[in-house]
Amino acid sequence: MPTETIAGTTVAVNDEGFFEHPEQWTPEMATELARQEGIGELTPKHWQVIEFMRKEYAEKGTGPTVRVLGKTSGVSVKELYQLFPKGPAKVAAKIAGIPKPRGCI
């Protein structure tokens, strides 16, 4: 199993760089992961999505799709694509330290 050092902590990741153990994630890691994804400073809207992703994963065992994010996170689909241009659900899940949501390529 590959590992990656993020914000000074070594974590287990899969071949695509998603956390194998979401409980290893810290908010400090989110900042570094966002930079790796080409996102500058995380705004309150970014954090709203990240926290929503983690909550959904904790409750349902999977991250939400873009459609669900747009309907229930309080951030519109249009805003999601502005915040996470390379793919909102996939990139937000990676930054949130959860596995890639079902249905993401």
Task: Give your account of this protein's structure.
- The chain is mainly α and 105 residues long.
- The chain has a single domain, classed as Orthogonal Bundle (Arc Repressor Mutant, subunit A).
- It has five helices and two strands, in the order E-E-H-H-H-H-H.
- It has a two-stranded antiparallel ribbon with strand order 1-2.
- A hairpin with a 2-residue loop joins strand 1 and strand 2.
- Helix 1 crosses helix 5 and helix 2 crosses helix 5.
- The mean pLDDT is 92.
Give the strand content: 5-15%
Order of helices and strands: EEHHHHH
* CATH fold type: Arc Repressor Mutant, subunit A
Sequence of strands across the biggest β-sheet? 1-2
Number of helices: 5
Low-pLDDT segments, ≥5 res = none
Can you identify the CATH superfamily? DsrC protein, C-terminal domain
Please estimate the helix content.
40-55%
For the record, give the distance between the C-alpha atoms at the N and C termini, rounded to a whole number. Answer: 21 Å
Nearest-angstrom radius of gyration? 12 Å
Query: How would you sum up the global shape?
Result: globular
Shape-level CATH architecture:
Orthogonal Bundle
The major beta sheet can be summarized as: 2 strands, antiparallel
What's the number of structural domains? 1
Global mean pLDDT: 92
Report the structural category.
mainly alpha
CATH class: Mainly Alpha
